[in-house]
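task queued by scheduler; priority normal; single chain, no ligands, no partner chains; default sampling; output format set to structure tokens
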Amino acid sequence: MIVQSPELISNPLVSIFIITYNQEKTIAQTIESILMQEGDFTMELIIGEDAGTDSTRQICIDYQRKYPDSIRLLLQDSNQGIVKNYIDLIRLCRGQFLGVCAGDDYWIDKSKLKKQLQFFGMHPDYGVVTTGGYRLLVKKNKLVEGLAPLHPVADGNVFHLTCQGGVYAMPLTLIFKRELLQYVDFDQFIVRKFSCEDVPMQAILAKHTKFGHIPDLTSVYRVYTESMTFTNFRSPKYIYYHQGLVAIKRYLNELYPDEVGFSEEWANDYLVYKHFLLAVYRFDYVSAKLQLSKLIHFNNKERRALNYSKTRFGFYLFCMLKRIKIFFYEKIA
């Protein structure tokens, strides 16, 4: 269901959309941080509430009523998941420039959009511009400077970086030209069961435009230990997430053959190793050993592990060292 008022701005220059689900503690801060933007431009804010079970939906409705000229709501009838909710929202955007922010992240610079629009005016051959920002380690309540890209490419040609398995820039920092959506087949995102939207989006955009960067610290990205994308072995979606990444890389390879570094052997080994790590996390060393035996190609560490596995004690020791490494990773996340 779409909720909007007759007072809604008719021709916004910028469309910002928020994807949110069960984020009652943070969504107000996210909305306020976007509405506080200053500059000589018109903006609409579209919020997609994905049928959560807390008070997020009511908070969004209250904000739409308070700012009827700026806010549109997409209230999903049932939970669609991040990717589908993202696609539904981006298809509602009417602005020439688009940006996204998750319902637990927020902006801290009132001039973020103004600076990015000025960049486009000065560099018309660029289609995307990013900014710097902070990571908020929620467990420690600590701000850490540094959001990708930490080392932006001078000429803006970043396609080779977007194909390495992750995002080049954190989504909440970037603004891009709407015209670039002509190159994106969102239906494939659904059909192929992608587990995230930002990885394929940035790769496809990077193939067709340059990425600029403004080093100003404008945004805050919340990092949770529970985050699916931060190697959370406790998540039931851990393997699903990585299967989705493989599907994304396979698709990009179909679009841009010989430019992505994909092979089915790589896909096999990537998922086998994720299953190995999951087995180690669960102290299931029998399954861990079985997974390593399924590798097609070995690096030195894996070859050493298989050598250790000739004795039960040696392999258990190797797995315990891996498990300790995982434990300390979770402690600092």
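post-processing summary
- The mean pLDDT is 89.
- Residues 228 and 236 are 9 Å apart (CA to CA).
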